[in-house]
Amino acid sequence: MQMVISTRELKSYYVLDVFGKGKVIKAVDDVNIDVRENEIYGIAGESGCGKSTLLKAIFGIMDPPLRLTAGKVLYFHKEQVYDLYSLNSEARRNLRWKFISYVPQGSMNVLNPVVKIKETFKDFLDSHLKGKTKSQYYEMAKEHLASLGLPPKILEAYPHQLSGGMRQRVTIALATLLNPKIIIADEPTTALDVVTQRGVIQLLRDIQSTLMNTIVLVTHDMGVQATMSTRIAVMYAGRIIEEAPTKKLFQDPKHPYTGYLIHSLPKFGDKSRRDSAPGSPPSLAALPLGCAFHPRCPYAFERCKSQTPTLKSYEPDHKVACWLMEER
Amino acid sequence: MNFVKRYLLPRLIIYFLVIFIGITTVFIIPRLLPTDPVLQTITRLRAQGAYMDPESTQRTIETLQELFGLKGSLSDQYLRFWQRLFKGDFGPSFFQFPTPVITLIKQSLPWTAALLLTTTLVSWFLGNILGGFAGYFSNQRWGRFLDYFAMVIRPMPYYILALGLLILLAYIFPIFPLGGGYTIGMRLTWSLNTLLTLLRHAFLPALSLLLIGTFVWFQAMKLVVQSVKNDDFVKYAEAGGIRLNKIATKYVIKNAMLPQITGLALSLGQIFSGALITEIVFSYPGLGTLLYNAIFTGDYNLLMGITAISILVVTTSILVIDLLYPLFDPRVRYK
Amino acid sequence: MKVLKDLLRDGKFAFGFFVLIFLIFLAILSFFSPYDPYRWNLVPRDMPPSLSHILGTTSRGQDVFWELCFAVRNSLIMSLIAGVLSRIIAILVGMIAGYKGGMADRFLMFVSDSFLVLPLFLIIVLIGSMAKARLNLVSLGLLLGVFGWAWDARVIRSQVLSLRERDFTYTSLLSGSRTMSLIFKEYMPFLTPLVFATFIGNVSWAIGMEITLAILNVLRIETPSLGTMLQWALNYQALLLGYWWWIGTPVVTSIMLFIALYLLSISVSEYLDPRMRVQRIGKA
To answer: Does residue B98 have a cis peptide bond before it, meaning omega lies within 30 degrees of 0?
Structure first.
């Protein structure tokens, strides 16, 4: 399997200075992931676990006080390896949209409110392509929308005239405009109603099956993860705690936390009470010693309170970070 | 049709209401204050040595009351005030008797309008563009330099800045004339020479207004940009690798301009106040100088005329900007 | 106190704060002045600064330093009257408009819009020139107070509008608080910083207006203030005659005062806006 993106010991912290007192929030801590060609890689976890930060780190859009503290992000593009954080800004800009593109969370305000949709399309095109006229760019945008089954007349509209679902589809169309190898989607369905959600999921799946590219899907919604992703990584308190192909993960979750996440999903015909993990996720600014999940974990024992488990393969293609695995 | 009802009509109603209130205020103020212009004029005439017997004094008082519009009951006066206003009649000036006030205003208004409108618009554009770029590229050295410059210029009283410029560029280094709108004795004809003379005389007053104005807008714009540049659509465009210059102009400045358009409309309200000081310092022959003379000579008709005219001009230009606003903001245009 | 300590760490605030303290000190000093500011020829005329008259003397035979103390005191008192009065109007209008909404809101906002649109400066000059010799500093302060509230009322209104949507409004309404006590007890703590920031801006505006009106000669010129001091100096051609200590004193003092107030207001509003604070930290 060919890799497209991988991270090496990635650490990304918020470094705050609250009236002279330093404060560090470890939003992404020691993350190693390998995303492969032609897969839908899901990143799951409760809100505040660091998924969005991980995504920003992978994409290279960090604003202070968020900083890359350590580690690397590697892009594999056209037989070449790019170390994202050693590239200058122009080289980084050149990889955007041609190699990696991005579908933002909540498309409410991501489109420039004072220009027509076609202007946004034109800006994306002429920042990455050269030597075409304005009307050629509009024509390209029109063809692209038609190929995705979206009405080309939305190009003449302003963002506020479109529905939330249509705006989300526009951002997906923008992300696929230059046929990138990898698309990163940050909670693409969260702000939408259930019916619209289905349409957006279908659009993303269609795109993936025709273009054969990779999608990294970040969402807390395990239902969406189950229907879309081919492989899932579960995050807790800034770390990946389990990673496996979707089927395996749902059938045989190894980490107690993953178990809770899956069991909190409703099932047809099952009327028993749904259990979620007791307590609430810890603050990333004050993590407990050892495994961050141990205060909520019913199986915790001495070792969990002092040592942090690392992510290891216990079965082929199934990684877990939990001391219970060593005990068995 | 919906646009007319929802946007145009309320604004027109407010426009006429504000004019009504403003003009009424101009009518009421002199009548509320304890000074009596008729008595004052009589006293002045006496002080100048004019002898008057009681009968002619009575006649003079009646004529003066007629000229000041002070005859009859308050409601009569008010009605006649409006009637005269519609005809553009503010009565005669006392400081240049018997030239009608409206003639004096007509002579002065073009000077003020040309100087103030140009500098207001130019400084608005300049300040917004500079502030937009300096706010977006906030780590650039030139931006920070402009910032410090603004911090010194901004709080300075305008009067002192203008005086300083005059001393520096007309007195110590006599590059520009000490004052006036044109060379004394010059005939105003349509020629290049005339134009150059006019520009040379307008340069210093314009420069002082531009300096203050530009930096006021510069700082206001920087503040707006500070919040716009964190908006989702800017962050998204940056993530999409759109060129930064394009983001600065088409995404940041174009959006941050919108509140500044309203600001421009409000600043026009201060335009005649600005004219006053500028024209006094540079002895520029506009409405401000006229007003200054009116204040010093106690010329009530002229004072009221200038105030009424400026209320009309200011509210009208604000209405025009307000009506143009939908051209820049599609969210107001199509709803 | 802790807030003050935090703010003083900002260089801009510290500068503004100490300049202001110094000027207040001058104002207090005026109570111990050896000279009566209304009387002329108490000291030799047109003397440059020396040990006996540290800022020199004027052509009217007055000591510039003690004259300045009175001027600062009067200008500050006048601007405080204007600032406090316009704050009271702005808070009342902003709160009632924001909280009541509906017709009350529309009416009050129409009034404040008219105040923004009308050339108020000209109207003030009109009043000033017609009431000449009666416009003392207290009535000028009141006049400026009546005219200087419109924009700030709008700012307060929009803040109240957002506070009204918060939970504690409903909680305290449901637990039977009276409307007025709710507004003042619950909202004031949120509005205080905003009121303070606009207060500084308003004080600065009032002092500038006083100087302008003094130069236009529509104030009672005998009362010492920053504006009338400058006006006397200009009247006696101090600039052309080279009496720099006379004209320079009010000019430098007012520039310092304006810069101090300006720095205070931007530092306070930066302190109030957490987003700007984070950006400042991010840069460091």
So the answer is: yes
